[in-house]
Write a structure and sequence with these properties.
There is one protein chain. With about 270 residues, the protein is α+β, with helices and mostly antiparallel strands. It contains 5 helices and 11 strands. The strands form 3 sheets. Strands 4, 5, 6, 7, 8 and 11 form a 6-stranded antiparallel beta sheet that branches. The radius of gyration is 36 Å and the shape is extended.
Length: about 270
């Protein structure tokens, strides 16, 4: 018996002619990132309390973040530990007041980086740091607080002239060094590291404090006969230049000169 094909028309399948409107993903979906608005405070050694940025107009409650699983945040905070706006290190930050003394302490610290030296006892070196320092601050912070005869003489000068050379303040070991310690604050002359190495100001040697307006001269050669001499003029060229001098006006500066030396940490240091 032979089978014959049905004469009925085949109904089209619903899937025939249907177009799928999709494509394979090009990459793995990235998890949603939460943006930190501010680090409010440090909870403990490994956790900080943060405030989140609002998303889609919705605000989120403050919550702790574990720095052990957020090394990027830890590195960012440690890099900005000296920034007064970083609240996470507020209890660990040392703010020096007044502002002029804070700037002087920073320069002294930056020049106490003599950590690695070939000798066991370290070598000493004379260092001078200079910074802008108003006359009123110099009078209030140094002349009025140091019991050195020259300080009393300089206090009576009106106006105060440059205190360079023989007029500089010489601070020697003893009572005046203790007075300087009281002015600059605790541990001003020691820079410690994460090892027991210390770079310190040698307080057994003289410290010089000078103040004044440094002379900065500008020499103009525009009208100098020697520089503008024409060999075809027939005249003899002058042997020396004749210049016009002008002076660059700046702020009064304080110079602080000391000796430094590397050593090992001792009891009583920071």
């Amino acid at each position: 018996m032979s089978l014959r094909r049905s004469q009925r028309e085949r109904r089209p399948s619903r899937k025939e002619g249907f177009q799928y409107d999709w494509s394979l993903p090009r990459g793995r979906p990235t998890p949603k990132s939460w943006s930190i608005l501010e680090v409010l405070k440090r909870i403990d050694q490994d956790r900080v309390l943060v405030r989140w940025n609002p998303t889609n107009g919705r605000e989120w409650p403050d919550s702790p973040v574990d720095l052990r699983i957020n090394p990027e945040l830890r590195a960012r905070l440690e890099k900005n530990g000296s920034n007064p706006k970083v609240k996470a290190f507020k209890d660990q930050q040392m703010a020096i007041e007044p502002r002029e003394l804070g700037a002087l302490r920073q320069l002294i610290y930056d020049n106490l980086g003599n950590r690695y030296t070939p000798s066991k006892e370290g070598h000493s070196r004379r260092v001078t740091v200079t910074l802008p320092f108003p006359e009123s601050s110099f009078r209030r912070l140094f002349l009025q607080k140091l019991s050195i005869p020259i300080c009393q003489e300089l206090l009576e000068e009106q106006p105060l002239e440059n205190c360079f050379g023989q007029r500089a303040i010489s601070i020697l070991p003893g009572e005046t060094m203790e007075e300087l310690d009281a002015i600059l604050g605790e541990s001003w002359g020691d820079r410690t590291f994460n090892t027991n190495t210390v770079c310190s100001v040698i307080k057994e040697e003289e410290i010089l404090v000078s103040w004044g307006y440094k002379k900065r001269e500008l020499f103009s050669h525009k009208n100098c006969p020697r520089c503008n001499w024409d060999k075809e003029s027939g005249e003899r060229r002058p042997e020396a230049c004749t210049t016009t001098v002008s002076y660059l006006v700046g702020e009064a500066e304080l110079s602080f000169t000391f000796s430094r030396r590397r050593g090992l940490w001792e009891p009583g240091m920071m």
